Amino acid sequence: MWHVWRTELPGRYRVDIRDPDYLNAWFVFYDENANPVRVHIRDSFDVEKLRYTYEKVDLPWMHKKPLPRRRITKTPLTGSLTEPTTFPKALDSVIKTRVIRPGKKRSKQEKEEQEEVLVVEFEIKLTDEFVKFDVYVNDMSNDEDDENNVKVVRPELAGSYTSLVHKGKHMVGKDGKMVMVRKSSLKLGLNTLLEELGDEDNEIVEVSLVPRTGTQGIEITDVKIVYVSD
Description:
Structural class: mainly beta
Mean pLDDT: 80
Family: Belongs to the tyrosinase family.
Helix content: 10-25%
Domain Polyphenol oxidase central: 16-66
Strand order of the largest sheet: 3-11-5-9-8
Organism: Saponaria officinalis
GO molecular function, one term: catechol oxidase activity
Pfam family, one: PPO1_DWL
Low-confidence stretches: 71-76, 143-153
Radius of gyration: 21 Å
Strand content: 35-45%
Number of strands: 11
Distance between the termini: 23 Å
């Protein structure tokens, strides 16, 4: 999938990771003769260095996208069925809020120069549980899937946050339980998603945060939209 993402999918945002701290990180493995070998992450991005290649095959899924569950309309969404949510707010149930976009009707050049990004900021208590929540944009289906915690997949899904179990030293909370809190954020690109939903002219974005598992230790502190350049 990494190779397909870098070489096959359209879009100018398919760029290599350039963070030197990440690229220069390394691991030690043992070869067939039990000799230690140091391997840098940067080397794994080049299939030629790994000495293998992929067969060219048809990928039908690249051109098949699910349709929105609501009818796409050209009428701009200037009002909102959802009131702005006051943060911070615990993610112990579905959170629906509206976010004002910094701009609309951007030109093709503006979209190429800047990605519109949805930023979900939160604090998370690291526990011995797997954590996941989903983020939906302009999902006007008005069904009970979210409330019933049904794991449906639909085009309005902007992305998901997951966190693996954390073991080790924790801080002691006021109630005597072991807990460690850290700040984090989830950033999701909106350019392509809003185009596919026909919502480029909308002044606001309806955002739904849907808890899936282990989110009782998450507190949402802010939801906003920013522009990000390369």
